[in-house]
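Hey,
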Amino acid sequence: MDLSSSADWNLIFEQTLTSDLENVSIPTSFTSNIIAVYILTSTSKPTWFTGGWVNQLVPTGLIDSSPTWNIYSQRLLLGKNILIFPESLASYNLQFSFPYYFPNAFLSVWEYIGATNDSPSGELVKVVSDVATIAQQVNNLITVVNAIRLLVGG
C-alpha cells in the first residue's frame, strides 16, 4: 500500500471550529480503515503535544439512547496523524474532542481510497497467530522441564 499519492485521498471534512469543541461529530460515514487527521489551534504553545482525541463509533442496533457505540479511542497529536482502524467494519463514524484550553481548532479529515492489497490487519492476525504458537511451544517446554525435574528428584 502506498499512502504517498494525493489522488488516493478524499478530503471529507475541513473546518475551523470556534465553539463546542467537545464531541464534534463528522457528518459522514467512513468505509476505509485508513484516515488522515490534521489538527491545529491558533494559540498553541511549544509544550503542547495533544491535539485532541478521536472516537470510532459504530451503529449497534441495540436499544439505547445513543444509536452508535464507541469501539475505539485514540489520542491525537497536534499536526499530522495517520489512523489505521481494524478492517472488520463496513462503515463507521468519527467523533473528535479537543483540549479544554483550545480557543479554537482547525480540523481536516481525509479518507484513504487507494488500494489496500497488503492489509496491515492481515499481517497483525499472522503475528498474533505466531505469538500464540510460540506461547504454546513455551508451555510445552515448561511441561517437559517440570517432568524431567520430577524424574531426577529435584
